[in-house]
Amino acid sequence: MAGPLSSLKVLDFSTLLPGPYATMMLADMGAEVLRVEAPDRVDLTKVMPPFDGKFSTAFSYLTRGKQTIQLNLKKPESVEKVKELVKDYDIVVEQFRPGVMDRLGIGYETLKAINPKLIYCAITGYGQSGPYRDRAGHDINYLAISGVASHCGRADSGPPPMGIQIADVAGGSHHAVMGILAAVIHRQNTGEGKFIDISMTDAAFALNAMAGAAALAGGQHQAPETGMLNGGTFYDYYRTSDDRWLSVGSLEPQFSARLCDTLGIGDMKSLATSQKPEHQKALKAAIKEKVGEKTLAEWREIFADVDACVEPVLTIEEAAEHPQIAGRGVTLDVDRGDGNEQRQIGLAIKFAN
Questions:
Q1: 170, CA 20 to 30 Å: which among 25, 102, 282, 302?
Q2: What is the CATH number of the domain that holds 262?
Q3: Is the pLDDT of residue 215 over 80?
């Protein structure tokens, strides 16, 4: 069955993670994606361990469902090839620093003159304007200056280096896809293309969401372990006797009551809804002590039929086999290019008629 975006054609100049993840999502939803690969410049994800077959697992995953053309964009004939291709494409995605595509002779204004309906999405660390527009950066930097890192982690150890790239993916990739699809609707209504300026720092700043509202409108300074959801209450992770972890998210009264009853601390139910830091501290200490008495497997069995928002912290391998994730078919087997299949994480969006 053709995907919902099967009428769209995407010309992808991006490398590394944010752009390729965005265009992978578009490809997963049916768009035809053509990667423009430089023959003299290696995409770092291609050589990033571990490997499965010829390429790295990251590269095989991010290039899923795409075609590739090699073009040296510094050569006039390659520039002319791009200009010819863009006549037949709906969307361009690029991830160069501001001004690079213009210097190559294939910037937005040039391509727009060839195809006025073109949707052009530029993903950068800091955006097309502002004093940092030409500054280098990575996910950790965008999370830092956007304020996200300042209220994550522990008070005594500081911001945690995250296991996923929040600014790159939730910021860059997802906002790019949303912007592109909004521009597609705009083009359907007006016949006009759009230039989309995605700043991963802007997007990370937007991810502050409720914490941002509390800080900017409520005058409430955000810091690690001071809020309801960042370790300032019993809503937290707890170490089991076998050095695994249990997540406790029993915020609502009915859930916290079941949590306390199941842990054998029913007399502390009232503390769960208290706003007093000393009450939350006492409850956290009691939960910590109780959870530390049993293994993760034992707690999983105990809470299996208890509706209390308590779940085990799983590894990625364990998560892939969890009946909820496995049952929804979130992983898939993909031909890695040599006839052998590779297991990958699939599109998280489910479409039905």
A1: 102
A2: 3.30.1540.10
A3: yes
